[in-house]
Every structure is written in structure tokens, then in C-alpha cells.
Amino acid sequence: GALYITPLLIVLVLIEFTDLVFALDSIPAIFAITTDPFIVYTSNVFAILGLRALYFALVGIIHRFHYLKYGLSLVLVVVGGKMIVNAWFGEKIVPTEIALLITSGIIGASMLFSLFKTRVEPTEEQLNEAARWWVPGSPPKAETASREKKGAEES
Question: What is the spatial distance between Cα 65 and Cα 68, in angstroms, rounded to a whole number?
Fold first, then answer.
């Protein structure tokens, strides 16, 4: 048989390229923690393999983590500050263990504050807003359900 390049192949190549870009984007953050090439390489491989699966897992519960984006922003500031301080003085001023404790504390606190804020069940409108924010261009659940009903009625 003949091989054909279909639009699906182009989409697959673009998705994998995006995964690669995101993995390469995380290299500076990894170097803030360690300079061991094996750890840097393997962590990026696992990032490429797990990024898409983690995305779909998070889409279902992201409405509960309102403050997570602020916590992650603060983590980037801490990692950048650690890299600048260590480069400025030419030695390890901020130990890796302290940086990891600060990072995990920030992420944990942002998750706890988020869970405390969203301890009540979300409304349908909040769920639709969360889905629209995390899945750009996706229709709200009500529109999807009405389309499915129309399709079933027309059949």
C-alpha cells in the first residue's frame, strides 16, 4: 500500500513538537535544582511522556485549584531568584534542599488555600468557565449536550 500524509499526521507532528517545546522550556528550572545531565535528560523525557496525560487529568479538577496559578508564578520567581543569587556570588548560596522545601511549601499552600476556597460544590457556570479557560475554544457542556440531542433526533 501507498503511504499518505493526512491532516491527522500534521496534527500529531504539531502536538509532539509542542510537547518538545514545553520540555525544553523547563530545562532552566531543572538546572536551578541540579546540574546532573542524567537527571536533566530523564526528567525531560518523562515530561514529554506524561504532559498530555496529566493535562487531561487536571482538566476535570482544575476548578478546585484557583490559587495554583499564583503559586506556580511565585515558584518561578523563587527559582529565578535562586539562580540569580547563585550566579551573582559564584557559589551555591541557596542550598537545593531549601529551594525544594520553599517550592513544595508554596505549591502545597496554594493548593490548600484553593481547596479551602472551593470547598462547596461548583455551579454549572463555574465548571463551564473552568473548562473554557483550560480548553480554549471548547463549547460549554450545555451546548455539547444540545448538539448531541439534535444529532440523535436527526438520525
Answer: 5
